[in-house]
Amino acid sequence: MSEPSPWHWSCDLAVPTRPGAGDRVIDCLLQQMRLLAWPEKDVFNVQLACTEAVANAVMHGNHSDPQKKVYFQCGVRDNEVRISIRDEGGGFNPNELPDPRHPDNILIPSGRGILLIRHIMSRVEFLPSGSGLTMTKYRSTPDLKR
Question: Which residue in 59, 29, 64, 63 sits closest to 45, CA to CA?
Answer without folding.
Answer: 29
